[in-house]
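Sequence of Multicomponent Na+:H+ antiporter subunit E (Agromyces flavus).
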Amino acid sequence: MRTPTPLDELTRWQAVWRQLPLLGGLVVLWVFLWDHVDVLTITTGIVLAIAVTRTLYLPPVLLSGRFDPWRGLLLGLRMMFDVVRASIEIAWAAVRPGPPPINAIIAVQLLTRSDLVTTLTAEAISVVPGTVVVDIDRERGLLYLHAFGTRDEEDLAHVRRQVLGTEERIVLAIGTREQAAAVRAARRHRRATGDRPVVPEPAEVPPHVAREIAPEHTATRHPLDDEGKDDA
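Predicted 3D structure, token representation.
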């Protein structure tokens, strides 16, 4: 038996209403592509938007129907601040003397399972210089990202806090009230306990289990670099 989804509880008109922003966005994109506004362009855009959303499979994206203007303003201001700060840090790292910065690919467990929140969080993170999302595990709500300048576990924890903070600001701006309450509770828990994930030693983890690799546990060079030297 198929597991009921939140979309099953919506009436036909409620489902159509929640899909209107997506349809409108596709129509606007179509008009921008043609760079011309007339009845024919808008009509073909509407027809194509309906055809795309009905024929091509996409996971259902449910909008909360809630938007907090103040939280949205704070989200935008914080993103601009993060972009400026990260740009300055990377520019300084490029010209300062000393060893090159150490980078890492880490996994961050998000607090929500909303496809919309996950997508917006990944986009917001990738906009900031120094962090790029390389993969998303939609089923488990995991973001895998390449982080710049991660020399120790404290740097990894800092990147993780930044990601969760971005997700929290997005949820407080457009998420449901239940999601907002959940991220606030998670924030209070982090501040009270100061918890951060413990990275086990490499020997304690079976080879088939995926895990986060801290910089101090990575190889100094690729094993394939030594191949062929004995034959020379």
